[in-house]
């Protein structure tokens, strides 16, 4: 892999940009691999990268039915933070946040990581208490987290309406300064390029349609581009987790729902942090192009159509306009939906299953982007050792039988 | 969002209704003898079907009555509405183009990664 650097930029600038090679190969599927990863989103590609880099397993295929990053990776609002309530969640999200801090350098790809601060607003006393409790829990886990009162919120983010007569009065909020946003495509491409350089085959337009087993262990997959033998299959398909699991008659506690986001016309810099409000189901940041990036809530019915209801984005925009009256005349340019895989306790499922060689990573729901490098890292360990990584262990599927749920609705809900 | 035909009130905007999960699932019987697996299966596990699903809805901002519906969850097409306690009616099969329901990744035919004829 040729390194990207100031010198390669200069060289190609003088050379009319003709010398850039492909960032990853387009290999044909081989007959067999040591590990097959289903799903070429950021989590799947990160898993492949860490398997190759840290566990010396590089005979890997990542099978993607569409194009890499075309699922939720390419549809999310990229809000990153680690201020979750419970120790188990704090461990995994903070593991990821630490990796985000150095990922551009590690992948030799500018992921445009911007630690601009994430503000979670409280609109009533109960919510304020709940957020303060979370702040204390975060601090005990060594995670930066602070309470801002309404005046401090206004100083930190001037466009927010903190008037006491506002429709959604702002009592204060939590701030995680290390939180922020990054560029979704760059993360996908960075992991793809780095994994490819380590020998991973990234195979696009290759849909897994069946999984083959013998004696309770997987033996391979059937795809739209032929069959592939493998002793280990890792499903990282987000909204389609249940579809893949059903190929092995495994039931998951996951419900798939449409989740929508939208962007406004580009404007000059207006808001230099991320603001989220759990209570009104809206979250907002501004992209480097100047568009306001706004996330909405889920449609509550089960659905795979990647199209949510208009009433859901109307609700989000009504709340945004109340919180930021100065945005009321902006026009919205684009709107889209993804399929999110929601677990009853708003925490992911990472680990082994009752079928030998079948591993699952899913159920990240509305908030898995922030976990990408951490998720890939602990999942790679779990696959390589056939044994959960200590950070992944609490997120095993068995927790739903044992009753050891990691209930993160307060921290996760629909806000990210 | 779609419109839904309430069996009691007729056609209304979908936002008047609430989804109430997969239909025709019965609670395991036996109380104390129910194993943890069976109980987790009832409380948490679901089929999360992509394709035709029998599901319950309630007309929460209307008559507030529950009813059943057959809907293709891949397309949101509503195939039938029927009352609680009734068996789901026969409907025409809705074959999905592929297990994930799209002919090409994520339903976006505008993106072709491979050239024509490439496999
Ligand atoms: C609108 C929206 C906003 C969001 N905002 C945030 C946010 O601000 N912060 C945050 O932390 N999270 C957010 N999320 C959640 C986040 O996007 C996801 O949790 C995360 O991207 C999931 O990662 P992934 O790589 O597993 O999923 P994906 O990128 O969806 O990857 C899964 C891939 O599997 C492929 N696939 C499926 N079935 C098959 C098959 N049979 N064969 C082969 N391939 C298959 C799909 O095509 C897809 O590319 C948001 C999600 C949405 C939809
Ligand atoms: Zn009615």
Using brief descriptors, characterize the structure shown.
heterodimer, A: alpha/beta, FAD/NAD(P)-binding domain, D-Amino Acid Oxidase, Chain A, domain 2, 2 domains, eight-stranded mixed beta sheet, six-stranded mixed beta sheet, 10 helices, 22% strand, globular, B: mainly beta, Folate-binding fold, four-stranded antiparallel beta sheet, two-stranded antiparallel sheet, 6 strands, 7% helix, binds flavin-adenine dinucleotide, binds zinc ion
Protein architecture, described:
The complex is a heterodimer of chains A (416) and B (119). Chain A is of the alpha/beta class and 416 residues long. Chain A has two domains: 27-78 and 184-254 and 345-402, FAD/NAD(P)-binding domain; 114-180 and 256-341, D-Amino Acid Oxidase, Chain A, domain 2, CATH 3.30.9.10. Chain A has helices at residues 6-14, 42-55, 87-107, 125-140, 150-156, 184-197, 241-246, 310-323, 372-385, 399-402, and strands at residues 35-38, 60-63, 118-122, 146-149, 172-176, 201-203, 208-214, 217-223, 226-229, 233-235, 255-264, 274-277, 282-286, 292-298, 332-342, 349-352, 358-362. In chain A, the strands form three sheets. Chain A has an eight-stranded mixed beta sheet. In chain A, strands 6-2-1-10-17-16 form a six-stranded mixed beta sheet. Chain A has a three-stranded antiparallel beta sheet with strand order 7-8-9, with no helix packed on it. The radius of gyration of chain A is 21 Å and the shape is globular. Chain B is globular. In chain B, strand 1 (3-6) and strand 2 form a beta hairpin. Residues 103-111 of chain B have low confidence and may be disordered. The longest helix of chain B is centred in the first third of the chain and has 8 residues, at 36-43. In chain B, the strands form two sheets. In chain B, strands 3-4-5-6 form a four-stranded antiparallel beta sheet, with no helix packed on it. Chain B has a single domain (3-115), classed as Folate-binding fold (2-Layer Sandwich), CATH 3.30.2270.10. Chains A and B meet through helix 7, helix 8 and helix 10 of A and strand 3 and helix 1 of B. Zinc ion is lined by residues 6, 8-9, 59, 62-63, 65 of chain B.
């Amino acid at each position: 892999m040729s390194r990207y650097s100031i010198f390669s930029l200069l060289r190609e600038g003088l050379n009319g940009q003709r010398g850039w090679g492909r960032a990853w190969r387009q290999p044909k599927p081989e007959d067999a691999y040591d590990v097959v990863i289903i799903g070429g989103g950021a989590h799947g590609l990160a898993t492949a990268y860490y398997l190759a880099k840290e566990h010396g397993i590089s005979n890997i295929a990542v099978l993607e039915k569409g194009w890499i990053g075309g699922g939720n990776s390419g549809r999310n609002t990229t809000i990153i933070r680690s201020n979750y309530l419970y120790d188990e969640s704090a461990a995994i999200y903070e593991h990821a946040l630490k990796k985000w801090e150095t990922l551009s350098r590690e992948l030799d790809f500018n992921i445009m990581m911007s630690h601009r601060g994430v503000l979670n607003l409280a609109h009533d006393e109960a919510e304020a208490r709940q957020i303060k409790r979370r702040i204390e829990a975060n601090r005990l886990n060594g995670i930066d987290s602070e309470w801002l009162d309404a005046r401090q919120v206004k100083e930190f983010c001037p466009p927010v309406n903190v008037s006491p007569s506002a429709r959604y009065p702002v009592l204060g909020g939590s701030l995680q300064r290390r939180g922020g946003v990054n560029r979704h495509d760059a993360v996908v491409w960075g992991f793809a390029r780095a994994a490819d350089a380590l020998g991973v085959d990234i195979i696009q337009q290759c849909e897994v349609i069946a999984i083959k087993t013998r004696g309770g262990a997987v033996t391979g997959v059937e795809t739209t581009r032929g069959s592939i033998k493998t002793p280990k299959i890792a499903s990282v398909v987000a909204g389609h987790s249940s579809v893949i699991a059903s190929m092995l008659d495994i039931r998951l506690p996951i419900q798939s729902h449409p989740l929508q986001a939208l962007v406004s016309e580009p404007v000059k810099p207006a808001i230099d942090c991320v603001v989220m409000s759990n209570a009104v189901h809206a979250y907002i940041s501004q992209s480097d192009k100047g568009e306001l990036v706004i996330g909405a809530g889920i449609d509550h019915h089960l659905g795979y159509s990647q199209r949510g209801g208009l009433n859901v984005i109307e609700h989000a925009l009504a709340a945004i306009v109340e919180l930021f009256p100065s945005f009321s005349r902006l026009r919205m340019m684009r709107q889209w939906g993804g399929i999110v895989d929601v677990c009853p306790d708003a925490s992911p499922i990472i680990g082994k299953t009752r079928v030998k060689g079948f591993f699952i990573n899913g159920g990240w729901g509305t908030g898995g982007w922030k976990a990408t490098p951490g998720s890939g890292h602990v999942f790679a360990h779990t696959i390589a050792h056939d044994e959960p990584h200590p950070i992944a262990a609490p997120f095993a599927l068995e927790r739903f039988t044992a009753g050891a749920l990691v209930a993160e609705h307060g921290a996760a809900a629909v806000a990210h | 969002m779609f419109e839904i035909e309430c069996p009691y009130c007729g056609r209304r905007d979908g936002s008047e209704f609430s989804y109430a999960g997969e239909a025709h699932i019965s609670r395991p019987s036996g109380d104390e003898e129910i194993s943890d697996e069976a109980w987790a299966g009832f409380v948490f596990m679901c089929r999360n079907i992509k394709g035709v699903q029998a599901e319950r809805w309630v007309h929460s901002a209307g008559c507030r009555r529950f009813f059943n519906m057959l809907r293709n969850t891949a397309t949101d097409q509503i195939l039938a509405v029927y009352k609680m306690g009734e068996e789901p009616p026969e409907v025409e099969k809705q074959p999905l183009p592929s297990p994930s329901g799209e002919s090409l990744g994520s339903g976006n035919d505008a993106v072709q990664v491979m050239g024509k004829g490439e496999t």
